[in-house]
Specification:
single chain; 42% helix; seven-stranded mixed β-sheet; alpha/beta; 11 helices
Length: 295
């Protein structure tokens, strides 16, 4: 009879031979999913035998993974910051680099709130816009870390908005987030003004799509493909952002690590004179915060 310890060891070796990164972690996540438990409990009961049905289910999820199905689509969930979000093939899988986007957006809001307080100004409304919300991970995180703010979240995909609404509801942020279905700003009331516009837009060049890993190609192309140069959606956001920003407002964008200079150039053409780019833990330039006033 095969036990948890032996099955995990064999699967980790198998995944490594197949070229999967983080092979042991993937083996653990998938087995925990099959057994209806978490990874910690795998180590608390390493000698527990697996019955034939559990072995069959585990082999099936391994097959799906090797076909290129993202692990998050198999398990139906993905950790982001301190929460687990429901994910389906209709939404982009939340990634660690997007945590940097949330962090810098929260910093930008807090800096503006502090500056207003120091100037003796009455604190205005704190409305934020999440463009391309997908699973709702960014919107939910902003709502949690900035309890004084209200969040509007937009996505072009009705299926994605349905997932995001479910996540907001399950994580207790349903009353703080308003969801819209549409293409970027087109879904919004014209009179809306935001302290910050936050987005993880599509930024992969179209001609790079065929060379992407199978698991990336399994995600919604509309959430990844940024057009010929990868910057078409970013250009569209910056072209109209000024119409929707309150005085002193900012735009925070995630982008490819080789795109920060181009993003800054586009931003300056659109009147954003203050541009600051931030690096992730791997030292890659991944997030840029832009404003027309020095805050």
């Amino acid at each position: 009879m095969k036990d948890i310890k032996g099955v995990l060891a064999a699967t980790a070796v198998f995944f490594t031979d197949k070229g999967l990164e983080a092979a042991r972690l993937e083996a653990e996540v998938l087995l925990a999913h099959v057994l209806g438990t978490d990874r910690l409990h795998l180590y608390l009961m390493p000698d527990r035998p697996l019955d034939p049905e559990e072995i069959r289910k585990y082999k099936e999820v391994i097959r799906l993974r090797l076909m290129g199905t993202p692990t998050a689509y198999i398990t139906g969930k993905k950790a982001f910051l301190k929460w687990e979000f429901k994910v389906t093939p209709e939404v982009l899988v939340p990634r660690p680099e997007t945590e940097l986007l949330v962090e810098k957006a929260v910093e930008a809001v807090n800096q503006r709130m502090a500056a207003s307080a120091c100037a003796g100004k009455e604190r205005g409304a704190c409305d934020l816009l999440d463009l391309g919300t997908g699973s709702g991970a960014v919107a939910v995180a902003l709502a949690h870390y900035l309890p004084e703010c209200r969040i509007d979240a937009v996505d072009i995909s009705p299926a994605a908005v349905a997932v995001a609404m479910e996540n907001a509801r399950s994580l207790g942020m349903e009353e703080r987030i308003t969801f819209y279905i549409g293409d970027l700003f087109s879904a919004l009331p014209a009179e809306k003004k935001y302290l910050g516009i936050v987005s993880n837009p599509p930024y992969i060049p179209s001609n790079a799509w065929p060379a992407l890993p199978k698991e990336v190609q399994a995600e919604p192309r509309v959430a990844l493909d940024g057009g010929e140069d990868g910057l078409e959606v970013i250009k569209a956001i910056l072209r109209r952002a000024g119409e929707y920003l309150a005085p002193g407002g900012f735009v925070a964008l995630e982008h490819g690590d080789d795109q920060h200079l181009l993003v800054a150039e586009i931003a300056r053409r659109e009147g954003f004179s203050h541009v600051c780019t931030y690096k992730d833990l791997a030292g890659r330039s991944r997030v840029t915060v832009l404003s027309r006033e020095n805050r």
